[in-house]
Design a protein that fits this description.
By secondary structure, the chain is of the alpha/beta class. It has one domain: 3-Layer(aba) Sandwich (Glutaredoxin). The protein is 36% helix and 22% strand.
Length: 180
């Protein structure tokens, strides 16, 4: 195998582990979920960024100042990303009137994202990016580029919560309610 083949296999292995279920079986076959919460950015001011939406119009994160933001970095090819999306749609509906705003940051092709949004009825803004979106994720505490990665920002623009891996609906709702 040549050098590029080995590099390609290594990259594929990394992406698959970064976007996998974070569950382990114990000896008694009970399933325990390991949560990975980054604390290095908690309490810091959210970084500014601008990315295009699915139609190519650029949006600045400052457009949503004064709202509780849930910024979710995801991709259509990532199973846990797809799994958490219906809960995010429900929570956006439930708390929009109280000042909640979900923002998706898709690391994916615009056409695939549009199809996904249409199929699942995504009811919040979706921004797109490749390397730029990965860099934004790093600024928000996602050092390794894992997907999904979710950040909750309070009304004053301070990062209040981060999660690398799937965020379950009940936990998302608990964290959101603290800030509304």
């Amino acid at each position: 195998m040549n050098k590029f083949g080995i590099i390609g296999l290594g990259l594929a292995a990394f992406l698959l582990t970064a976007c996998g279920d974070d569950k382990t079986n114990t000896e008694t076959e009970n399933v325990k979920v390991r949560t990975v919460v980054s604390t290095s950015v908690i309490g810091s001011q959210r970084p500014g960024f601008a990315l295009p939406d699915t139609s190519g119009s650029e949006h600045n994160i400052g457009e949503w100042d004064g709202k509780v933001l849930v910024i979710n970095f995801w991709a259509t090819w990532c199973p846990p990303c797809r799994k958490e999306m219906p809960a995010f749609i429900e929570l956006q509906d439930k708390f929009a009137d109280q000042g909640l705003q979900f923002i998706g940051v898709a690391i994916d092709d615009a056409d695939k994202v549009k199809d996904f949004m249409d199929t699942y009825g995504v009811n919040y803004p979706m921004l797109l990016g490749d390397l730029a979106a990965i860099e934004v994720g790093k600024q928000y505490g996602n050092r390794f580029g894992a997907l999904p990665y979710t950040v909750i920002v309070d009304r004053e623009g301070k990062i209040a919560f981060t999660r690398r891996g799937e965020l379950e609906k009940h936990e998302a709702e608990t964290e959101i309610k603290k800030l509304l």
